[in-house]
Amino acid sequence: MQQLTRAEEEIMQKLWELEKAHVKEVLSLMPEPKPAYNTVSTIIRILEKKGVVGHEVVGKSHLYFPILRKEEYKKQSLKQLIQGYFEGSFSQMASFFAKEENLSTKEVDELLSHLKKDIKDK
């Protein structure tokens, strides 16, 4: 799967939220200063070429929808982050964030509890 640019990710976030949308609906959710309509339309067409967005014709317009599921993209992005910055080690990444975010002992215990539960549920 291709990595998405920051602008493409931002558009995908809106499409995941809306599920199906016209360009103007995606644009309405964009933060200020809003990009131009043509910019959003171009990015959506690029996402279509990448195979992560599809469309259906409704009258004279297009209704866009995500093909790529958010969970799948999240999983791939996290794997790339761990590989690229933490030598493939989840524990190095967790340690880094624990230090950077100044997690309390209680927060670390909660994190461990969640991890144990997730492993147990597998």
Structure description:
It is a single chain. The chain is mainly alpha-helical and 122 residues long. It folds into 2 domains: 6-66, Arc Repressor Mutant, subunit A (Orthogonal Bundle), CATH 1.10.10.10; 70-121, no CATH class. Helix content is 63%, strand content 10%. It has 6 helices and 2 strands, in the order αααββααα. It has a two-stranded antiparallel sheet with strand order 1-2. Strand 1 and strand 2 (61-66) form a beta hairpin. Helix 1 (6-18) crosses helix 3 (37-49) and helix 2 crosses helix 3. The model has no long low-confidence stretch (mean pLDDT 91).
Summarize the structure.
This protein is mostly helical and 122 residues long. It has six helices and two strands, in the order αααββααα. The chain has two domains: 61 residues, Arc Repressor Mutant, subunit A; 52 residues, no CATH class.
Describe the secondary structure blueprint for this structure.
Blueprint: H1 6-18, H2 23-29, H3 37-49, E1 53-58, E2 61-66, H4 70-85, H5 90-100, H6 105-121
Antiparallel strand pairs: 1-2
